[in-house]
Amino acid sequence: MTTAQTLPVIFIDDAGLAAVGLDPVATAWAAANGFSGQRGRLLAVPDGQGAVAAYLFGTGSAVDRPVLVAGLAAAQLGEGNYRLEGAIDDPTLAALGFNLGAYRFDKYRKAKATPVLADLGVADAAEVARLTKAAYLARDLINTAPNDLGPVAFEREIRAFASARNMTVTAIVGDDLLAANFPMIHAVGRASTEAPRLLDLSWGRSGDPKVTLVGKGVTFDTGGLDIKTAAGMLLMKKDMGGAANVLGLASAIVDAGLRVRLRVLVPVVENSIAGAAFRPGDVLTSRKGLTVEIGNTDAEGRLILADALALADEENPEILLDMATLTGAARVALGPDLPPLYSTDDALARELMTAGLAADDPLWQLPLWSPYDSMMASKIADVNNAGAGGFAGSITAALFLRRFVANAKAWVHLDIYGWAPEARAGRPLGGTDQGIRAVYNVLKQRFPA
Ligand code: BES
Ligand code: MN
Ligand code: ZN
């Protein structure tokens, strides 16, 4: 689309209107409306006929400007085709911020037209498109109601995802999980009317470094027999947020053609209540052979991840990375917007934190604090799935997972929240992507196309 067909959104920072060379009429209009580039403020400028000639958009001062500040403009603009001008720090991040802020989830209501960035100027259009697609995919999956995304439907979505990207896909479903030695995935999911399953996707050229992603795919978490409260259960459709985000990440990796051999493992289960449910006190033998006493059926995510991580670990990946809405404690420790990151490789952890901050996709390293391993001691099995005492819940969950990883060169675990409880720049309220851009940017540096 040419510039003549798009409406300009003119970014104005604390250097003011003069810095972007605004004409005298627009400058006077801005002054008359008290507009001086305040962060997030959007002001329409009329042409001589009373139509909108342009929008002025304030981005405030650099010290407290979100990287995706453009998302605040998109969240306020109506239907139309736009282009970005003026005081823009990074055109690609501005375009991406705009798109991420324009996201709406309209599956269950009449769709409202959203603003379209129709002219990307000098932004890297391919990168903007792939990262927009990745985030939208993760958000759509998380936002979808749990009656529309049970284990059967989620497998269908994952198969469609894989075939659209020429990824090979296999599924192990129901009792076949027992035969194939995934006892904990089976135990967690067997009470649901929709059988548990493990989806296994692969892509890439032989010889490239193996990167394996694992995502928690609990399509709904009632807590099991250790049932959650009503308030605690309300948002549990998002308990497949780890799976949604590794799929978004995989989409970006494949689309960019990064030089990796990618594997994506998604254990998909519903943690339901029925006669067949696993119980507190049960002892499960995991794929790895470790026995796990069930202290709490609501600590189900670590069980399904443990079997999937053990499988991934069997082929010694270069990087093994999992994402999971694993603990309520993560949100208590760092809040909903800053997922805890754990890693056996401190250099990789630092790279991820740095990349995350630069991309407005922050992650914060917490320690794999070995002394807390004893909090999950069992009197009768190798380990208990729930820590005693209620201390350090995100750390103890990470330590539980670590027991199932031995051969991967580097292992990373992100304890994500997967939900934006309030709208922020580039992050509308609701299901949200976390970790995709941080991890993608590090992989892109390490394994460029
Ligand atoms: N899916 C939840 C964790 C969760 C809860 C994430 C709320 C985000 C928001 C997980 O399966 C769970 O229930 N974890 C328990 C573990 C506990 C029983 C050891 C938790 O965090 O309370
Ligand atoms: Mn749970
Ligand atoms: Zn859960």
How would you sum up this structure, described in words?
By secondary structure, the chain is α/β, with parallel strands linked by helices. The chain folds into two domains: 7-123, 3-Layer(aba) Sandwich (Leucine Aminopeptidase, subunit E, domain 1); 131-446, Aminopeptidase (3-Layer(aba) Sandwich). It contains 14 helices and 19 strands. It has helices at 24-32, 70-74, 91-101, 125-143, 151-164, 176-179, 183-189, 230-233, 241-256, 301-313, 328-334, 346-358, 393-402, 436-446; strands spanning 7-13, 42-46, 52-60, 80-86, 115-119, 168-173, 197-203, 210-215, 217-221, 261-271, 283-285, 291-293, 319-324, 340-343, 364-365, 383-384, 410-415, 419-420, 430-431. The strands form four sheets. Strands 6, 7, 8, 9, 10, 13, 14, 15 and 17 form a nine-stranded mixed sheet that branches. Strand 11 (283-285) and strand 12 form a beta hairpin. It is elongated. It starts with 6 loop residues before the first strand and ends with a helix. The model has no long low-confidence stretch (mean pLDDT 97). The structure holds ligand BES, manganese (II) ion and zinc ion. Zinc ion binds next to strand 9.
In summary, what is this structure?
The chain is of the alpha/beta class and 449 residues long. The chain folds into 2 domains: 7-123, Leucine Aminopeptidase, subunit E, domain 1 (3-Layer(aba) Sandwich), CATH 3.40.220; 131-446, Aminopeptidase.
